[in-house]
Amino acid sequence: MRRGLAIFLFINALIVTFLIHSVFTLLTLLVEDGSADTIHNSEIPAPNSPSIDNLPQLIPKILHQTYVNDSVPEHWRGAQQSCIELHGDYEYRVGFPSAAMDHRQADTSHRCGPMPSLENS
Length: 121
Prior knowledge:
- There is one protein chain.
- The chain is mainly α.
- 50% of the residues lie in helices and 8% in strands.
- The chain has five helices and two strands, in the order H-H-H-E-H-E-H.
- The radius of gyration is 28 Å and the shape is elongated.
- The model has no long low-confidence stretch (mean pLDDT 80).
């Protein structure tokens, strides 16, 4: 009787240990308040503040538009031009899949082999 009880308790302990291990990350979220990752109001400059220009530029200002080929349709030209005018200090790039595939082919062919063609899909 004692051996059966010991085996039963051991198996239950293994199951409970496995379950706790499986959900440990979720359990730690119960006690995490996120204060270490908080952006405080003192770190955020006011809108149109001169201190915004003194901050380091971490994300490059690039508008990248993609289309199936290098000619954008006429009915999209107005939206395209308004984006360019609205963001005058951004670099504007137009890309299309065949150019991207050529770039990826040249850049990664030594690591992953030939890239599949888009024309067949």
